[in-house]
């Protein structure tokens, strides 16, 4: 089981989302703790080394530290804008 940490950027954006979207994101992040590779994509280019979790039309970007068993949630947002932040 992995430990989840969040950045200030993630928290700031997450708090602005509607309750239904936040609930859906929390459910998917809970699943991420069990297996961070399930339903995720490894990112490329400038975002190499990061991963993306699909949550409907939203994406959560995170980094993964295997040795520490740590997932750091970096940002969350609509799929059209989250990669530009």
Largest sheet: 5 strands, mixed
Considering DSSP H and I runs of 4 or more, what fraction of the residues is helical? 25-40%
Q: Fill in the CATH topology.
A: YaeB-like fold
Number of domains as seen in the coordinates: 1
- Structure class: alpha+beta
Number of strands: 5
From the spread of the alpha carbons, the general shape counts as globular
Gross CATH architecture: 2-Layer Sandwich
Q: What CATH first level would be assigned?
A: Alpha Beta
Name the poorly predicted regions. none
Q: What is the radius of gyration computed over CA atoms, rounded to a whole number of angstroms?
A: 12 Å
* Series of H and E elements: EHHEEEE
| CA-CA gap between termini | 29 Å
Task: Give the number of helices.
Answer: 2
The average pLDDT value, as a whole number, equals: 92
How big a fraction of the residues is strand? 25-35%
Order of neighbouring strands in the sheet with most strands: 1-5-4-3-2
């Amino acid at each position: 089981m992995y430990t989840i940490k969040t950045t200030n950027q993630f928290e700031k954006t997450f708090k602005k989302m509607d309750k239904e979207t936040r609930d859906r994101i929390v459910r998917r992040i809970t699943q991420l703790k069990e297996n961070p590779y399930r339903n995720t994509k490894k990112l490329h280019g400038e975002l190499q080394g990061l991963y993306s979790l699909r949550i409907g039309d939203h994406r959560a970007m995170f980094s993964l530290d295997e040795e520490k068993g740590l997932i750091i949630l970096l940002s969350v947002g609509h799929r059209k804008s989250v990669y530009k932040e």
